[in-house]
């Protein structure tokens, strides 16, 4: 009888088989759920108006969070039971279904209230300060609110973003402002509505800058005890061309006495110090690292000339029009730079500074030697650069246009709301 009873009971499943079965069911259900979620997402995006995309994205975040929480308490209760029969499993499954349907119904019923709350906040318009993640967030927020949105685009945004991403954002932006002519041309090539794009140079707020020094020493590099001070300010990254600059410094005539100072941090700090040592000029180079504004302008005041060897990086990143060139010009420093990107929109070669080809240490060395040895030339090009800066690169014009454009968005939205109310 005992033998018969034992044969009528199925043998207990091993732990390894139970774990394997659980993993298969768990993974399979997750994969199936993910496929359903992807399919429903594509379907909803096709159905929704673009203004609803932001709401859809925010709803997805809430759903994922609730989905993470809704079943754990019930599942834990089942796991802690010493014996689980089929009836308990069916009860758990039924309760999960009811809970999820309840959550879905609650969100559906609360959607009109959420729309009222969101639309009640007064906002004239939105401006994103770059075209990458901040622009995406602003775009979604504007869509959620039914507001026009606008964007400003700068160096890396323009040159390293995917063309499709730029075109897609510019398709529904009310307007875009960028800070260089070369950047504007690039964006117009990708914009579905080029007429919405506007050039506004960053410019400088002259009222908040220290005055330039009254006069500069007439150093010419002949006195070893009083060398010409060559200054550069910028991040130690590839597009700033500091590797080229060090090579150029090493090529300067041996009879020219100079000292190089750099202000700024960056990922290439140790690489550049090693390069300077290998070139035999480490003792002439001073690396200050990142400094507060007061120390930066102190460095500008004691320098004889300013250099920035900008070039295009391997990943496509490049400068626009570096503000540091304008700040140096404001301090009446002569400028040496390259024809890269929009630098030529500010510096006229031979008139308001000297420009060379990007990535050309030989040309850069000639330009540096020319300015270092000629204090009269330094004074002449510095004065011309200062005149250009004050005539064309004050920040007031750009700020006034942006403020007017944002105000125009507010007026347009008010007219639209009035028209809808009249209907």
Question: Describe it for me?
Answer:
This protein is α/β, with parallel strands linked by helices. It has 16 helices and 10 strands. It has a 6-stranded parallel sheet, sandwiched between helices. A 4-stranded parallel sheet has the order 1-2-3-4, sandwiched between helices. The protein is elongated. The N terminus is likely disordered.
Using brief descriptors, characterize the structure shown:
single chain; alpha/beta; 6-stranded parallel β-sheet; 16 helices; 56% helix; elongated; disordered N terminus
Number of DSSP helical runs: 16
Ends distance: 88 Å
Q: Unreliable runs, pLDDT <50, ≥5 residues?
A: 3-7, 118-125
Fraction of residues in β-strands: 5-15%
Average pLDDT level:
81
Biggest sheet statistics:
6 strands, parallel
Per DSSP E runs of 2 or more residues, the count of β-strands stands at 10
Strand order of the largest sheet: 7-6-5-8-9-10
- Provide the gyration radius in Å: 32 Å
In terms of structural class, how would the helical and strand content be classed? alpha/beta
What is the molecular shape? elongated
What share of the residues lie within helices?
Answer: 55-70%
Q: SSE order in H/E notation? A: HHHHHEHEHHEHEEHEHEHEHEEHHH
């Amino acid at each position: 009888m005992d033998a018969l009873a034992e044969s009528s009971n199925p043998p207990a499943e091993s732990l390894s088989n139970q774990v394997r079965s659980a993993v298969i069911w768990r993974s399979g259900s997750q994969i199936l759920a993910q496929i359903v979620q992807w399919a429903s997402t594509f379907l909803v995006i096709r159905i929704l108006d673009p203004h609803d995309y932001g709401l859809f994205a925010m709803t997805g975040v809430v759903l994922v969070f609730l989905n993470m929480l809704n079943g754990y308490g019930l599942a834990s209760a089942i796991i802690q039971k010493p014996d689980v029969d089929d009836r308990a499993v069916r009860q758990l499954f039924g309760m999960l279904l009811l809970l999820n349907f309840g959550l879905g119904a609650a969100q559906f019923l609360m959607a009109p209230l959420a729309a009222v709350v969101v639309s009640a906040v007064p906002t004239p318009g939105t401006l994103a300060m770059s075209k990458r993640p901040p622009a995406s967030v602003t775009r979604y927020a504007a869509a959620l609110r039914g507001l026009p949105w606008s964007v400003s685009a700068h160096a890396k945004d323009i040159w390293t973003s995917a063309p499709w991403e730029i075109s897609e954002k510019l398709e529904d932006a009310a307007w875009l402002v960028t800070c260089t002519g070369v950047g504007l041309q690039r964006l117009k090539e990708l914009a579905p509505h080029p007429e919405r794009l506007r050039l506004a140079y960053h410019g400088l707020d002259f009222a908040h800058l220290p005055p330039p020094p009254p006069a500069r020493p007439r150093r010419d590099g002949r006195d070893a005890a009083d060398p010409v001070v060559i200054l550069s300010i910028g991040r130690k990254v590839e597009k700033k061309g500091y590797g080229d600059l060090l090579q150029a410094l090493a090529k300067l005539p041996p009879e020219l006495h100079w000292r190089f100072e750099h202000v700024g941090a960056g990922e290439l700090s140790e690489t550049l110090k090693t390069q300077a040592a290998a070139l035999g000029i480490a003792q002439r180079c001073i690396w200050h690292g990142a400094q507060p504004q007061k120390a930066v302008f102190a460095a500008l005041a004691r320098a004889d000339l300013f250099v920035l060897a900008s070039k295009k990086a391997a990943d496509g990143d490049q400068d626009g029009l570096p503000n540091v060139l304008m700040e140096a010009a404001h301090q009446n420093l002569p400028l040496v730079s390259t024809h890269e990107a929009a630098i030529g929109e500010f510096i006229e070669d031979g008139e308001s500074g000297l420009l060379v080809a990007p990535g050309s240490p030989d040309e850069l060395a000639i330009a540096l030697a020319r300015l270092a040895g000629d204090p009269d030339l330094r004074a002449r090009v510095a004065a011309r650069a200062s005149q250009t800066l004050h005539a064309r690169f004050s920040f007031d014009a750009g700020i006034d246009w942006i403020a007017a454009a944002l105000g125009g968005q507010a007026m347009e939205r008010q007219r639209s709301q009035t028209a809808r109310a009249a209907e």
